[in-house]
Amino acid sequence: MNKKQFLDEIKQKLRGLEESDVKKSIDYYDEMIDDYVENGKSEEEAVSSLGSVDDIATSILKEISLPKLVKAGIKAKRKLLWWEIALLVIGSPVWVPILLAVVLILLSIYIVIWSIVVALYSINLAFAAVGVSGIAGSVFLMVLGNLYQGLFYLGIGLVFSGIAILLFFAFNKISVYVIRFGNLIFRGIKSLFIRKRGLSNE
């Protein structure tokens, strides 16, 4: 396969995407092939070393946002026949609520994921606020001559500050895993749209 055939096949696999996204990918692989040729390889060898068109198209599509993938999937399809449109209209009382439910479920998952992250840092902030307040209050009490009460508040402030520091590192780790889980879900959804194009998803 020469360079033109290779790039044309990639274009075909990316049909429906915005022209700027397709051009960016094509230009990238065009330049890469040229670099291989400059280093002494033939076009066929250069193309072969890049891997299969399906794998390349899949990796490109994985970097495209979900809304763009949905839009591309719609644009890439052929025009509907009159009887297909009629079936869609007749079946709309069934598929529209289902589609809406799926969208709301995905939105809920997204909100829950970020709510967990916000809740974790809110807890951390509360501990830090108690710690700072305790230390500040201890200084105030000591200035007023309440030494023992001041030391008590200082101890509380230091304990809560220490807990806040530990929680900060712990919540950072937890948040990373929570966000990764969310990304995993959305990558799975994107993979469904990629598979609809008949591409591998390794």
Shape descriptor: elongated
Number of strands: 0
What is the averaged pLDDT score?
Answer: 84
Instruction: Quickly count the helices.
Output: 7
Q: What structural class results from the helix and strand content? A: mainly alpha
**Oligomer state of the chains in this structure:** single chain
Major pleated sheet: none
Between the first and last Cα atoms, what is the distance in angstroms?
23 Å
Rounded to an integer, what's the Rg over CA atoms?
28 Å
Q: What percentage of residues falls in helices of 4 or more residues?
A: over 70%
Question: What would you say this structure looks like, in words?
Answer:
- The chain is mostly helical.
- The chain is 84% helix and 0% strand.
- It has helices spanning 3-13, 19-38, 43-49, 53-62, 66-76, 82-143, 147-195.
- Helix 1 runs antiparallel to helix 2 (19-38) and helix 2 crosses helix 3 (43-49).
- It starts with a helix and ends in a 7-residue tail after the last helix.
- The relative contact order is 0.10.
